[in-house]
Amino acid sequence: MSDLVHVGALSLAVLGAGSLIGVRRDVSVMDMAAVIIMTTGMIDAMTISLLPAVVWFAVMLSTAIALAISVRLAPAVDAVRRRGDGVVSAHVAFGLLSTATLILVMSAPPGGDLTAASELSAHPHGSTHGAPRMLAAGVMVGTVVSSVIALRSRPTRSHRLHSAAMSASTVAMAFVVLI
Question: What is the pLDDT of residues 65-88, one digit of tens each?
Fold first, then answer.
């Protein structure tokens, strides 16, 4: 069952990334790069695990911070050169944080020790203790709230598809930790 949920989560992530990248004209380069990094991290963590989970966590966290800084600095940047908006960027940044957290939590050994995650792939799904499971549940709730806000503020079909697909993918990954 876990493998089926993995395939579903990955398929939804690819669909969401493709829909956002397909919009192009009102999506920033940072948003597109962030979605590509997030999807690549998911693919690696769920398949061959070239990089340890903690490396993907660091890459995604750094990207989320850079994305937040770019949105914060946007008013100071020439509006003609700036593409995208804060709602999409906020949703993508939260998605990066959610995915990074879940990749790290999924890599915890059965004892729930996240410090050992640096040496493991994201396959053990051993987080049976309360804290990692509560973290996964919090990420799931936060993702749903973030997606509802994004769905209500972005009227285009591609943006809505992106928000819904990425939200469903994150919820599926959190579900794997919770079951």
Answer: 888 887 776 555 544 344 445 667
Q: CA torsion sign, 159 to 160 to 166 to 170?
A: positive
Which DSSP category does 76 fall into? Answer: G
User: For the segment 133-171, what is each residue's pLDDT rounded down to a tens digit?
Assistant: 788 888 888 888 888 888 887 767 887 888 888 888 888
Q: Which tokens is 78 given? A: 């020439």
* Positive or negative: CA dihedral 23, 29, 33, 35: negative
Alpha carbon of residue 18 to chain centroid: 14
Q: How far is CA 5 from CA 70, 149, 177, in A?
A: 34, 25, 11
Read off the DSSP letter of residue 38.
H
